[in-house]
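dude i think i finally got it to work??
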Amino acid sequence: MCGIAGFVGNGTERDLDGMTRSIMHRGPDGSGSFVDSAHRVFLGHRRLAIIDVSGGLQPMSSPDTGTTIVFNGEIYNHRHLRRELEQLGHRFVTDHSDTEVILRGYDAWGEAVVERLDGMFAFAIYDVKQQRLFLARDRFGEKPLFYHVSRTGIVFASELAALRRHPSVADLGLDERSLQKFFAYSFLPGSATPYRDVYKLPPGSVLTYRLSDGVVQKRQYWRFAIEPDRRPEGSERDWIDQVRSLLTEAVSSRLESDVPLGVFLSGGIDSSAIAVLADRQRSQGVLSTFTIGFHETSYDESSYAEQMAKFIGSSHHVEFCDVDFMLASAPKILDTLAEPLGDPSLIPTYLVSAHAARHVKVALSGDGGDELFAGYDPFKALKVADLYQKWVPRPVHAAIRAMAAKLPVSDRNMSFQFKLNRALRGMSQARSVWNPVWLAALEPDDISRIFGSRISVDELYEDAIDIWDRSRADNLVDRTLEFYTNLYLPDDILVKSDRAGMMNSLEIRAPFLHSGLADYVARLPAHTKFRNGTTKWILKEALKEVLPSEILERRKKGFGIPVAQWLREMPDPDWRPVAGLNDKVFRKWDCEHRKHRKDHRGGLWCRYVLDRTIGTRQTSPQAHPL
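look at this
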């Protein structure tokens, strides 16, 4: 696990050093650089040593071809690929470095190497013979990769903070459409970033930059898609057994580490399953588990986590997150983040990562379980939303929402008032945008209000609409699954885990994103995931032999924090301006929120995030036609 940065074209070694220094938290165990002065190629690396600690130094070059790589991530099937490459005649220098496996794999298979990798990765390969730079990102986007292409070259980095240390990127202005999308999703979807002409390489994608003329080619080699025509063979019982077998294999593959390893344990189904399977497969020692608790009881799950810890006999560690921690730590966390992410659970994720990092260097998480197996509450709302649109006349929608808005404001986790108001605002939209509107900090009319102009819903939610329209699934459940796995998972959940973990120099692994498991689940019919109001049906059936019934049958809470209450306890806002935003609207919302008149937690938290991440003296944003 590491941080990478580099560029082709204008710039100096001093620029490269500044880029890599800004992501030292991603790799405190060492650094390295590669420079080809003749061709103006600069590659930098920060290392968090996990596999082959004594070897595997980067940048790493092939002694046969001169090909050079900087790599961030872990390849879980590297030993299998190593054996395959050795049979092809390749001789390895390192003992068991997965970095060298990618490098030799590129020499053997070219760009197709990415399709053989089971892991999380972002890497850059300088192909000296072909005179090109090859960038790649893993299938779900567990590891980040940002880039900027100009007339003079290309710049890339693991984090925006590093990218903006390069002189060609430092002065780029804000992109107004991206900021609008941030409020529309509570995260930045797809390739969007806050800055003009700066992009994320999408999950499952590669990019080739030709040094001779600056031509860029980008393609997607994989995307999660439901495959209704490729149902697995066997009975439903066979499917259940196979899910359990594949999850066991996924956990096993992610236990390899040359440094201490633990598990994040919330007491929910996903993390509990990972913890039990990890404990069963550890060859030695007591498993360490880590939990975050809250003093606000409707948000607290620590008692369930403690129950699971006793069940498996782990060495359990609990840390409590309260408003004092949030007020003291949120500014520092968001300043380091350097990019907008409107998910407040970033704060407790940072805390549990910091807590775990005092004991281990690697932690397994339950990320991906909800997205693959239909674990979220909106799946329960799909049928109701469909009936609502069919039978409730459009003119009546506004009246119903007005009545719901009069319900007393509640700060409780997933209160009836909160869920009802969120559900109603989505039900008035087209099916293709139900899910992002349900998740979002603000709805389209509010976004138009804070930006001072009417905004097209189709343009605002084009990323979600594209996923909906491209789906081959013929039902609402599967189409919703594709939204969660292709947008919410990579652009919210995995961003949160990667940044919170790496701020603390902690590697976080997600067994649910194992290639074999994800591919298999994509072939299962929708009724095996969401059945008669039960979420994660097949996963729960698969885990009946693994987990206590109290854990399997407990009501899902979700990893939320009492941000509505905490916002009232924060100092009066003194936001730094962000070009394009009307802060008079936000100040009105802040006043209403503090007086318990309305619940504006989503919009106010996102405004606070923007204040800390990009709310400096920026140049004017580029306007997009509305």
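The two ends are 41 Å apart (CA to CA).
im so relieved honestly
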